[in-house]
Amino acid sequence: MEKISGKCPILHRGIIILFLRLFLGGLFIYASSHKIIHTPRFINTVANYEILPYWMINITSIILPWLELLIGALLIIGIFVRSCAFIQCLLLALFIVAIGINIARGLEFYCGCFTEDSTIGGMNYWHIVINILLLSSALILFILERRRFSHRFFQKHFVQK
Known about the structure:
- It is a single chain.
- The chain is mainly α.
- The protein has one domain.
- It is built from 6 helices and no strands.
- Helix 1 (10-37) crosses helix 5, helix 2 (39-48) packs across helix 3 and helix 4 packs antiparallel against helix 5 (125-144).
- The longest helix has 28 residues, at 10-37.
């Protein structure tokens, strides 16, 4: 099996990239779907964080789920994978900070990430650990993926040589 500059074999690297793309993309689509369907409930959740100024709560509550959906879809399709992984890293870092601030304040409420009855719906240290693992996965995807389009179809038909 051919190696790229002493790093992991091409086949293994491709499988890891594909797995991370599908996992992170699917997770972000799943997370966004509940927020999009239940926007008024998500607006209240964002307000509960008590971090954003009042005028940003509605804007954030509307834009964030659609951004998550777009990032997830682009990752699954394989378009702009590095950019999506970078944005995911930023979002996950922001989630970690926001949850950490509220844990430090002693506030405990539904975090808004998934459905309310999910195992990571609460606000606790395990939630931070899970987000750190997701952040690590997105960072690994960002490092491993070197192309703009992860699938050859898009490179062949949409990229000018």
